[in-house]
Amino acid sequence: MDRWKRQVNVMLLALLVIATASGWLSFATGSEHSSKIIIAAHGVSGIALLMLFPAKVRIAKWGLRSAGWSRKVIGFALVALVLSTVASGLLHGLGGWRSYVGLLPMQMHVGAATAAGLLLVAHILIHQRIRWPRWRPLLRSTDLDRRAALGVAGVAAGGAALWLAVPGRQRRGTGSHEVGSGAPDQVPVTQWLFDPVPRIDPAGWRLRTAGRELDLAALAARPQRGVRAVLDCTGGWYTEQDWAGVSLAELGLPAGRSIEVTSATGYRRRFPAAEARTLLLATHVGGRPLSAGHGGPARLVAPGRRGFWWVKWVTAIDVDDAPAWRQPPFPLS
What is the pTM of this model? Predict the structure, then answer.
């Protein structure tokens, strides 16, 4: 029985790691085809967690008899957060893009998953009773026998079957729901974390780049370009719109390894210099000037990247020799 309990816990831990890793990877990629594989792994691991829940309940009953109050609190909280994570993920897939009690299912999903990850670490540390340098390994050779392999295969197959069988609304490969394509007024106004929506007077707006400042008139005098691109927000929605503005390659940028685009709020992202021709500093969407909520007077359009790369309210574009990867994978503010 002890071996069975350990194998169930190991499978649960592995599924939690896969679900967490695939969830963050799905935010990082904007490619629809590669995202389908990542989202499938995320969904299958989440459903497999539910399949193992009854077994974990049995294990918890035995463990709680002799557990201290701290382990009990962490254990109950962890179970609640994991169930909330899976439930909000299913709600996003089945219910479409809408809010509940003022929160989007994706916000609930990410928040619960992040808290569950932190509690999981605490749970493992307490359970392992760390006394450095004595550390009891999480895995033992007996955990990886034929029976365990068959159990993993069975849970994975069951999760995959349920993932394919559960009906869901039509979504993009990234898992996002379509909202307002071709109708800019219907596009949600969202921004990363706590960024406010600044009110910028178009007449006073200036872009600082390559040692000079450009106003909207100077920007309009440069070769204009239009592009139809998908803005895929990590909030769980996407929209396809016609954007118009100036390619970054037309701004006369100096040579360098990377391009850093900065917002009026201080938000910034760095791109490889080779992408200058594909990046667009947009001033219009759907034939009309950008609204403040959608990044006006000028925002970045980065085709093939998720929404947090599409910097709003751009006020500066700089080039330097720092590599494009020298930044957090996700903005910290």
Answer: 0.82
